[in-house]
């Protein structure tokens, strides 16, 4: 059985909830990623911030990324999967919540992320086609 731990990208780095969006953007650039988990002072997952969030919810609104904290964009309950979840559970979570990336948690701590690229390497063609249709075909 293939698990979330098997297909995830290990070593995901968090942006602290009190860090600013300009730092998040630099981290994304340096790590060559399009999203970062937002972690709190309690070392727990508080959300995810994407490059698109920074552009649309900060820059496009005329706000200064140096003055906006990551926590301001962490809305709602973050969706995640347990490291022991099988691929079907990972896909169900991503499809039902319409997310293109999902954090992987073990013992209440972030241990990795699963993105579309990770899925492309791990899934069969049929599984990948179903995922793409579920995520992108909805209006």
TrEMBL record:
SUPFAM superfamilies: CBS-domain pair
Keyword Chloroplast: no
SMART domains according to UniProt: CBS
Disulfide bond listed as a keyword: no
Pfam family of the protein (one): CBS
Organism domain of life: Bacteria
Alphabetical list of InterPro entries matching this protein: CBS_dom, CBS_dom_sf, Diverse_CBS-Domain
Domain CBS: 8-65, 73-134
Keywords on record: CBS domain
Protein name per UniProt: CBS domain-containing protein
Highest classification ranks of the organism: Bacteria, Bacillati, Actinomycetota, Actinomycetes, Pseudonocardiales
């Amino acid at each position: 059985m293939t698990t979330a731990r098997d297909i995830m990208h290990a070593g995901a780095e968090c942006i602290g909830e009190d860090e600013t969006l300009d730092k998040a953007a630099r981290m994304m650039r340096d790590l060559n990623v399009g999203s970062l988990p937002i972690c709190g002072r309690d070392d727990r997952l508080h959300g995810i911030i994407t490059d698109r969030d920074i552009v649309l919810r900060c820059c496009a609104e005329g706000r200064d990324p140096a003055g906006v904290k990551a926590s301001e964009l962490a809305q709602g309950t973050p969706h995640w999967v347990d490291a022991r979840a099988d691929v079907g559970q990972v896909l169900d979570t991503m499809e039902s919540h319409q997310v293109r990336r999902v954090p992987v948690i073990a013992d209440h701590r972030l241990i990795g992320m699963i993105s579309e690229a990770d899925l492309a390497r791990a899934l069969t063609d049929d599984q990948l086609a179903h995922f793409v249709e579920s995520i992108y075909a909805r209006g």
